[in-house]
Amino acid sequence: MKLPQLHYDVFFVAVMCVGCSQSEPPVTTATVSNMNDQYTASEMPPFPTDYDGVMKVLAPYYHEQRPLDFFFEMYIANVIEQLPNETLTALDDFSAKHPTYFENHDGDWRQFVRKELHLSETIEVAIWDLWIRNSAKAKDDGRQYHPWYYAQNFADNFFAEGSRVDAWDGKALEEARERVRLYRENAR
Prior knowledge:
With 188 residues, this protein is mostly helical. The chain has one domain (8-187). It contains nine helices and no strands. Helix 1 crosses helix 3 and helix 4 (67-79) crosses helix 8 (147-159). Mean pLDDT is 82; it is low at 1-39.
């Protein structure tokens, strides 16, 4: 996927400096960037809870020239209301400290994701519906489906060639909306 033209030079300098000390290598030396390769559904790391945490997690994505993937994963977790408030605050701190990064999107990382990925008006229904069904299946199998792991799986399927993640046939959209409504109503 072609990345949008952003001010990566400013961002790269910030990524290189976060967490650096005389005794530690820079964050950009991380070797594993695809958490699907490193973690299983039950062993996911916690979401970042502060600005430095965002920078550390974002660094490998940036190194592979795919920072949009990180923000899409956060977007997905936010849609299903599983992104901790501390992470939302940390992402807002990132936006405030790097105003040029999202300047074409009014400084809003969520709007950045929606616009850069050309997300449809029904994407949130797709995100919710698959979360509801897949987390229920995991529970039936005696597992907990970590929301970040789900976000990665959703993104992988969304970007797959021929993806039908957000394609609706017949009454599928109406049925998905109803499942989401009932789930959210019962979750309260």
